[in-house]
Design a protein that fits this description.
- The chain is mainly alpha-helical.
- The chain is built from six helices and three strands, in the order ααβααββαα.
- Helices cover 64% and strands 11% of the residues.
- A three-stranded antiparallel β-sheet has the order 1-3-2.
- Helix 2 (41-50) packs across helix 4 and helix 3 crosses helix 4 (68-80).
Length: 148
């Protein structure tokens, strides 16, 4: 017995396309709004992962879905720039735990603040209160797309 093909509605396909494009544009705009201190998107992604706490290079590589060698290169650059700290893993001395340094925390907090300020200002300038309320309602619906 074969599974019946899934039939997608035209509105689902259109919404998916438009949402994907919008998310990409907003992501680029957030990056423009904050000083990236000449870090690559991959390096910024590593720093962002470390906002949640310490991790090993292997854990970061798995989360980023890249090879450990790629993460090792990023971590070396981030360490040289003073954005991450490394210390021996107390559970396994062969591994190192990586964490944000004070400079790394400051960088990530500043990026977050800059993005928040840009978006708040843009929403205030480009939308009426009623439209902002509509956006809030739409965001509740979009929340279902995220991990549960």
């Amino acid at each position: 017995m074969t599974d019946a093909p899934v039939i997608l509605s035209a509105s689902s396909a259109q919404a998916a396309r438009e949402l994907r494009v919008l998310v990409s544009r907003l992501r680029r705009r957030f990056l423009e709004a904050s000083d990236n201190v000449e870090l690559t998107p991959s390096q910024l992604s590593v720093l962002s992962r470390l906002k949640n706490g310490d991790a090993t290079a292997s854990e970061i590589a798995a989360a980023e879905r890249v090879r450990p060698q790629a993460i090792a290169t990023h971590l070396a650059i981030l360490s040289d720039r003073g954005f991450v700290l490394r210390r021996p893993d107390p559970k396994d001395g062969r591994r190192q735990l990586v964490s944000l340094s004070p400079a790394g925390r400051e960088l990530m907090a500043g990026r977050s603040r800059a993005g928040q300020e840009w978006l708040t200002t843009a929403l205030e300038e480009k939308y009426t209160e009623a439209e902002r309320q509509t956006l809030l309602a739409a965001l509740e619906l979009l929340e279902r797309l995220g991990p549960q």
